């Protein structure tokens, strides 16, 4: 390296160090309370496998079921009255906020997940209208059925021939849900679940962008990632490259759709949005939002559910018995038929209670406020509700809260739904998930079709779940399963 280059590098490093020292002094990183100390030094790792387990422990022991992590300026709650207050009663005081919008803005743009106010309301109305249509529900059912019959079942049948091998079903479910959401939303088939299990550059770039965007929220000050972005270094450089790749894909999908024009009577979600706007940036944001909404959440639900089902033979037997009764040995023919499977619906809700695909969700407080449990919340600070911790509160679910028990969702054999404020897995209030019905169709169809044909077993039963950081719950060790043909099934 030339001497001149070396001195430029030295000056650069010197200023960066100076800057970071300044940032760390300005933020409350040196708060000395016990919780903040454990957070900053990561000493909680001596006792807990996952950050969410440590938070659960702290929340359980808090008389209000609310805690404050000073170094993050974050109030975390598992109190359902606080959640109703944030998501409904004082909804306008708890938007996603500018800080969140800045963190995810490069990746999500102005898409529905990253918007507040009028822009959010407009997109919500549009999406609501489209996703609520009967034709969209039928489309979802058809897309899911096709992917199961032509890809998922043939692939798992192929696994059977490699008797002693272990397969990561988390990877299978991620491929499955990526194909489904792309076909449903844009009429594009990435064929990720093809027998050769191809590596999709788009899927890799999308994962990276989502992971690195989530990491921004974990830095002690936004200035840290903003400086890295300014100099285009480290994780910010990788984020920029992965977003570029995602954008290339989105632009191509939109171009193809434009080329087809209205002549082909396309049924997918993007075509319907294109009828209302031609703004390419806005359409790009819609493509990315729906990929994010429909891919990882569904795959994560299925991973948690199969981890539980592989250890609960009596639940598997009950699912099979109910399906036999409703379908009379035939294949499911419509999404309406799925509604008749009350026990299966209870299994899905119970699985997502224990392993919510989105473990926590944050809003930003606009004006100083006091939550119903008496906690004061300062303007411009973060308030987070913690679905994972809530599932483990005996104050909400009773002393058997840690047990996987689908029966808690049934009254006289009929599915009964708890208030969403106690179960904010799909969020609750004005911004509740719009894809819930579609997700349920997908999850229930996969469970049924796999359990009707195969027996499943955990390949490494001693492994306890560990989660990787990201926007949705990911099992660090995947979901290694052994599958075998069900006796009597051909
Ligand atoms: C098991 C699967 C799913 C879970 C657990 C889930 C959960 C959630 C949650 C927690 C939110 C609130 C996010 C936030 O505001 O930060 C949300 C919002 C949303 N979800 Fe889902 N989701 C799932 C599947 C889907 C699918 C398949 C779609 C689309 C086809 C979808 C579409 C949406 C949309 C459009 C919103 C934004 C609503 C708004 O901001 O007004 N979701 N979902």
Q: What is the correct CATH architecture?
A: Orthogonal Bundle
* Beta-strand fraction estimate: 5-15%
- Briefly note the CATH topology name: Cytochrome p450
| Helical residues, percent | 55-70%
DSSP strand tally: 13
List keywords for this structure.
490 residues; alpha+beta; Cytochrome p450; 4-stranded mixed beta sheet; 20 helices; 13 strands; globular; binds protoporphyrin IX containing FE
What does the model show?
The protein is built from 20 helices and 13 strands. By secondary structure, it is α+β, with helices and mostly antiparallel strands. It has one domain (31-485): Cytochrome p450 (Orthogonal Bundle). A 4-stranded mixed beta sheet has the order 1-2-7-4, with helices on both faces. Strands 3-13-10 form a 3-stranded antiparallel beta sheet. Helix 14 (296-309) runs parallel beside helix 20 (436-453) and helix 15 (313-327) runs antiparallel to helix 17. The radius of gyration is 23 Å and the shape is globular. The mean pLDDT is 89. Bound molecules: protoporphyrin IX containing FE. Protoporphyrin IX containing FE binds next to helix 6, helix 13, helix 14 and helix 20.
């Amino acid at each position: 390296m030339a001497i001149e280059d070396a001195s430029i590098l030295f000056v650069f490093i010197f200023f960066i160090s100076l800057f970071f020292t300044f940032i760390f002094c300005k933020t409350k990183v040196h708060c000395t309370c016990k919780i903040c100390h454990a957070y900053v030094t990561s000493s909680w790792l001596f006792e807990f496998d996952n950050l969410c387990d440590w938070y659960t422990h702290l929340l359980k022991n808090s008389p209000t079921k609310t805690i404050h992590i000073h170094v993050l300026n974050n109030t975390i709650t598992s109190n359902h009255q606080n959640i109703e207050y944030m998501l409904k009663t004082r909804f306008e005081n708890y938007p996603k906020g500018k800080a969140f919008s800045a963190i995810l803005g490069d990746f999500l743009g102005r898409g529905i997940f990253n918007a507040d106010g009028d822009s959010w309301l407009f997109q919500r109305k549009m999406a609501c209208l489209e996703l609520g249509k009967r034709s969209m529900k039928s489309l979802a059912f058809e897309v899911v059925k096709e992917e199961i019959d032509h890809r998922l079942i043939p692939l798992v049948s192929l696994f059977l021939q490699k008797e002693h091998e272990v397969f990561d079903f988390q990877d299978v479910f991620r491929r499955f849900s990526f194909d489904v959401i792309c076909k449903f939303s844009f009429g594009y088939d990435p064929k990720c679940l093809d027998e050769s299990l191809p590596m999709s550059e788009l899927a890799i770039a999308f994962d990276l962008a989502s992971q690195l965007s989530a990491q921004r929220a974990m830095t002690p000050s936004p200035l840290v990632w903003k400086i890295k972005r300014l100099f285009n270094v480290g994780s910010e450089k990788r984020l920029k490259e992965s977003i570029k790749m995602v954008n290339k894909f989105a632009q191509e999908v939109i171009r193809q759709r434009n080329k087809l024009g209205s002549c082909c009577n396309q049924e997918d979600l993007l075509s319907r949005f294109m009828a209302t706007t031609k703004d390419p940036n806005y359409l790009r944001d819609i493509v990315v939002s729906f990929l994010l909404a429909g891919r990882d959440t569904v795959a994560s639900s299925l991973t948690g559910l199969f981890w539980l089902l592989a250890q609960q033979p009596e639940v598997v037997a009950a699912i099979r018995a109910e399906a036999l009764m409703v379908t009379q040995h035939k294949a499911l023919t419509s999404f309406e038929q799925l509604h008749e499977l009350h026990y299966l619906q209870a299994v899905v809700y119970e699985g997502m209670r224990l392993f919510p695909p989105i473990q926590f969700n944050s809003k930003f407080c606009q004006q100083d406020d006091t939550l119903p449990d008496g906690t004061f919340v300062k303007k411009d600070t973060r308030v987070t509700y913690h679905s994972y911790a809530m599932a483990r509160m005996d104050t909400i679910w009773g002393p058997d809260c840690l047990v996987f028990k689908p029966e808690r969702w049934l009254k006289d054999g009929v599915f009964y739904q708890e208030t969403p404020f106690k179960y904010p897995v799909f969020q609750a209030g004005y911004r509740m998930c719009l894809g819930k019905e579609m997700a349920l169709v997908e999850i229930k169809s996969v469970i049924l079709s796999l359990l009707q044909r195969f027996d499943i077993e955990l390949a490494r039963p001693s492994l306890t779940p560990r989660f990787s950081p990201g926007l949705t719950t990911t099992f660090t060790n995947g979901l290694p399963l052994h599958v075998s043909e069900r006796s009597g099934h051909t």
